[in-house]
UniProtKB/TrEMBL annotation:
Organism this protein belongs to: Arthrobacter horti
Residues of the HpaB/PvcC/4-BUDH N-terminal domain: 3-268
Protein name, as recorded: 4-hydroxyphenylacetate 3-hydroxylase N-terminal domain-containing protein
SUPFAM superfamilies named in the record: Acyl-CoA dehydrogenase C-terminal domain-like, Acyl-CoA dehydrogenase NM domain-like
Span of domain HpaB/PvcC/4-BUDH C-terminal: 277-476
Keyword Lyase: no
Amino acid sequence: MRTGAEYISSLNDGRTVLIDGQAVRDVAGHPAFSKVVQTVGELFDIAADPANGMQYHSPEIDGPANRVFSIPRTSEDMKARRAAVERWAKHTHGWVGRSPDHVGTFFAAFAAHPEVFAHDERDFAGNLTRYYERILRENLYVSYAIIPPQYSRATTASGWEGDNIQVGVVGETEEGLIVRGSQMLATGGAISDEVFVTCIKPLGPDDVDFAVSFALPAATEGLKFLCRRPYATSATSEFDYPLTSRYDEPDALVIFDDVLVPWDRVFIDRDVEKLRRQFFDTGAHALGNWQAQTRLTVKLQFIAAVARKIAAVNGTDRIPGVQERLGELAAVVSSVESALLAAEYSASPDADGMMVPGKRALYGIMGLQSETYPRVIQILRDLAGGGVLQLPSGVADMKSEVTAADVEKYVASPNVSSEERIKLFRLAWDIIGTEFAGRHQQYELFYAGAPFVVKGVYTYRNFGFELHVAELDEFLAGYTVDGRTAGSPALEALVGAGEEA
Ligand SMILES: Cc1cc2nc3c(=O)[nH]c(=O)nc-3n(C[C@H](O)[C@H](O)[C@H](O)COP(=O)(O)OP(=O)(O)OC[C@H]3O[C@@H](n4cnc5c(N)ncnc54)[C@H](O)[C@@H]3O)c2cc1C
């Protein structure tokens, strides 16, 4: 199985990664990427070591593969899949959102439903299946850009005047499609093997040229990653920026300058209806977001531990009000963890035999994410107080003859060394206050879509209001202005239960 070193050495393949007005020559060695590249490399090493239990026999390739890419077909598969995703997430403590298992999970679900991609003339379903087999065989790290660039949300792309802003088809040859435009926001794109490009936002009939789905190697002619400002380059040391320095995944707008997409890389060609079906009729959206919730759970557990330790170091953990805050934090974290497990417990096989996580539990907790994450951060912020700023400017102050003695004496706590205290509060600041922290707050609010979409579409539609409204209707039909009507078993049961209680 692919090793970290193999992944790292594959990155300098001529891809176009743009930062500070320049194309980056050495992606793996550039300070914006080198640390997170190392982290991703470690993930591959973990998967490659059989001792970590992440490998399984894949029936699709009749050989060993990484469990994080598996198609779950039984409850045991679900459990084993979650354990593998968790194994990786624990290595990054949940701070790498788009590790290779994220998009790989979407492809597992796509591959379990090739019929969704079937086309009368071209073998798009076969393309999909073969691509998934490559992910299994090669442990591919695929990123994705599936959102139209934020240009104007007043209309969809067909309403935008001028040349393609959103990526879409501008031509077709015997070799494939020619695409032009851009798509947001490929987290990890610059350091991934391949980028999957499509559009998850609903498109109208006039947007048909933008209704495509394909994957390309990161090093494809005409394909460019326009990266946001990196934060890792400002991390003066690992001690001062323990998260920024290891986990700063690059986000990039992906630009396509008349890029050829070979036919064998196309999964959907100008078909608005199939574009929607690929995410929602394959179970990919649910399975992919279940992976994301597994990672989020690990991250929240990590943040809770930091909060708990801060209260201990500051000697506030015996104060009832502080215990209440920690209890609130524990309640939030366990509700996310419980929903993750409930989604697994309530998973059921679809028509193709793939286990789909229970959508009510999954989308229920996702609907609260725009409140739970800020709440967790707020509690940590509250408990940390000014301690995250009553810190020396960096490790140099802890070593310098000029400052070390003062730092050691004044920036400490009873039974806690200065180094331990500074280390903990530096970490807390990287969770709540640095640019990396700010990006993560935006990430947790938006990665699965804007909150109005997550709540208003996914949570609202998957709750199953119908059943409860039917029960309510039966109850309401059970009495009139003249008293209770007979023959309403559900009502009798309800009344009976009430009496027993
Ligand atoms: C850190 C980070 C990493 C990301 N990584 C990826 C990635 O790897 N791959 C990828 O494809 N995408 C990624 N995304 C993009 C993400 O999927 C989008 O941010 C998300 O789908 C929301 O789209 P948007 O940002 O265009 O927000 P918009 O849709 O423009 O919405 C922004 C806000 O405008 C308002 N609004 C807009 N339209 C409406 C409406 N119709 N009704 C009510 N209010 C409205 C709401 O307040 C909404 O929150 C990432 C985003 C972030 C922040």
